[in-house]
Amino acid sequence: MSAFFVSARAVCLLVFFLLFPALTQAACSQLPGGFSAHVDHVYDGDTLRLQDGRKVRLVGVNTPEMGRDGRADEPYAREARNWLKQRADRQRVYLLPGSESRDRYGRLLAHLYLPDGRLAAEWMVREGLGYALAMGSDERLADCLFEAEQEARQKSERLWQQSPVAAGDVSQSGFAVVRGRVTRITPTRRGLYIDLDQHLALFLSEDVVDEVGADLWQTGQVLEARGWLVDRLQRQQNLAAGQQRWLLRVMHKYHIREH
């Protein structure tokens, strides 16, 4: 083969990789069992409405909340919404139902594949516009979602400039990735409580404990967990002896790890 043809082939490959980076990096393949639908409106980075009126909550990702009722937008909320809007609004997409059909608000729970075949959740977590979630996700996609997130973490992209949050610094409700040292472990009939930095309690249900192993955690370890923080003082007047004000329920084995 002549040097001319070798060089021409190399140039063609370079152009391909530059023009189609998504195809060369994508890890989460499109799985069967879904359906096509037309997007009518994008509310935020993980919520949209279909042309038939159904609301969809994307699974596999949690993006920052848009401000409402006088509250400001969370950091990068508008960027996440705009990212999804530019790629999915008024477009025909592919939806793959999650492990549960609907959430408590009646929204359809599904993975969203964009018109070009990419999994929206994968690319939002890869760019630091959302956090990977395994809860409600198709198990076959969980690994690639958390792998994609590692790229954003390593580069401190967007959300990862401020995450994880030190457990001892938690001061407000909402989704968070927290990190802290185990200061107490309390087994109960319903699951396991793990206190971090004597400030925040993680709760693992029996099912999650069975998956990760009850003997895996020890005092002094540094753990990282993700989920929705709850202020117990908003639901009860006083804390019981030894009870931490802040509570985070770990909903999946992928949502807790030793650091």
From TrEMBL:
The keyword Hydrolase applies. Residues 33-162 form the TNase-like domain. GO terms for molecular function: endonuclease activity. It holds the Pfam family SNase. Residues 1-26 form the signal peptide. SUPFAM superfamilies: Staphylococcal nuclease. Keywords: Endonuclease, Hydrolase, Nuclease, Signal. This is Endonuclease YncB, thermonuclease family. It comes from Marinobacterium sediminicola. The lineage of its organism: Bacteria, Pseudomonadati, Pseudomonadota, Gammaproteobacteria, Oceanospirillales.
